[in-house]
Design a protein that fits this description.
This protein is an alpha+beta fold and about 400 residues long. The chain has three domains: about 140 residues, Beta-Lactamase (2-Layer Sandwich); about 120 residues, no CATH class; about 100 residues, Orthogonal Bundle (Arc Repressor Mutant, subunit A). It has 17 helices and six strands. A six-stranded mixed beta sheet has the order 2-1-5-4-3-6, sandwiched between helices. It starts with a helix and ends in a 6-residue tail after the last helix.
Amino acid sequence: MTEELISIVKSLSVISKLKIKIFDKANDLIFESNSKISTTNLKIRKSVLVSISKTAETSSKTNCYCIQIDNASFLISGLWNNEIFQGILSCGPFFTSIPVTNNLDTSLKLYYQSLPILNNLELNSLATLIVNITSGRPTKPNIIKTSTDFSFNVADNQSISSYNEDIINSRYSNQRSIMTAISTGNKELADSLIGDAAAFLSPFSQRTPNRPLRSAKNIAFVFNTMCRIASEHSGVAPIYLHLISEKYALIIERSSTLAQLAKSIHAMSDDYCDLVVKLNNNRYSAKIKKSISFINLRYSEPIKLNDIAIYSNTNPAYLSRKFKQETGQSVIGFLNRTKINKAQNLIKNTDNSITDVSILVGFNNLTYFCKVFKNITGTTPSSFQKNLGLFKQ
């Protein structure tokens, strides 16, 4: 094996995010890429390697074999130097459809969900690159699938009778229950109803033929919309919903494995529930809702009671009286509490100094910030930081 070949194979492994192995003519492993994907749970048996090696040696250089092991797939091609057979190269494991993991133990389920899912175009492109590397010349691959064919044909006309009505009714019922849980901020119930997020996505894996990951992403987008609607019904202002919806739209689109998508489903549900608990304004009148939204959006700016009253289209005296009546707090008290809550989050989750934190939440005077912080939390910012084990010099 030349250094040039090793360099190319390493690059392919990095780009494809797949484990690549090279075996010599005696079927002994002589190279293994440093892919993050482990092959501990799925290995090509020696007998399979021997069989494919013999077949590859006596067949066309352009052949690329797609084999399945426990429903996962590997691409295997003969490795040639000019006309001399050198061994074989394997690439995988990966899936060509969303795996069913309901009956697997937890560790194996997580492992399956971490594997990439390739559609037909990605499979053919990967085979083309492998054959061009292993044959030593530009060529088009001849993919030979040694087990079940991966193609999926969509029926032109599917009748209603072909669907299981009970299953569909159950899905819709579960969907309504999830939306109700999110609209009330019940994080535990929502997580319980979602259950295994991979299984949650699996029934829709062929809605985009031959592109299972794309199908799963589309369902995740739909779920994002469901969460947004449920949260809006609880009284969360659209500006907050827009921000969290945009955040998860990007996370979903950037996901490259089912595990990442499954993780985003639960994280999405949790974040929307937290948002509902924090910003549920349904119990307030329209003017107080506007005032609270203004404070939550502009807390870091030097806003005054008059600014909030103008935004809420009322006068300061009426707003002060009404705000205290509905929230139990004065407007300025609510504003300061919002600032201190934000400050606590910054101290917990960033490396900012206490001085920087005070400025970021809208205090221009550090002494006054520390005084307000202690009045609300019962401790100073420095003590709060020390108690978290995050004291910074």
